[in-house]
Amino acid sequence: MGSTKALVTCLLVIIFAVMLSNHNVLASEIEKVSYDNCRHLCSDTYGWFECMNDCEAAGFINGGQCASPSPKDPLKCCCQK
């Protein structure tokens, strides 16, 4: 009984580790931002919604988001191809 319990515990840990590593890979793919087409500065009145709409109106299929290549730089509306 003790070896069965240890085997099941190890199996669950392995399954959890695989699921977690796949989630991290997907998250890192989603967070990539292109800074090639950054336009307006984002602010309280010009946020992600306005940015997304402006980029879609300009023909960018994936819209846009407020982003910055460095924490020191201000957020700009970056349209995504």
Task: Please explain how this structure is put together.
- The chain contains two helices and three strands; from the N terminus they run H-E-H-E-E.
- The chain has about 80 residues and is an alpha+beta fold.
- Strands 1-3-2 form a three-stranded antiparallel sheet.
- The protein is elongated and about 65 Å long.
- About 10% of the residues have low confidence.
Any key phrases for this structure?
single chain; 81 residues; alpha+beta; three-stranded antiparallel β-sheet; 2 helices; 48% helix
Give a concise summary.
The chain is α+β, with helices and mostly antiparallel strands and 81 residues long. The chain is built from 2 helices and 3 strands.
The strand order across the widest sheet is 1-3-2
How many helical elements?
2
Q: Helix-strand pattern, N to C?
A: HEHEE
Task: Report the mean per-residue pLDDT as an integer.
Answer: 80
What is the number of E strands? 3
Strand content: 5-15%
- Whole-number radius of gyration? 21 Å
Fold topology:
Blueprint: H1 2-30, E1 38-41, H2 48-57, E2 64-67, E3 76-79
Antiparallel strand pairs: 1-3, 2-3
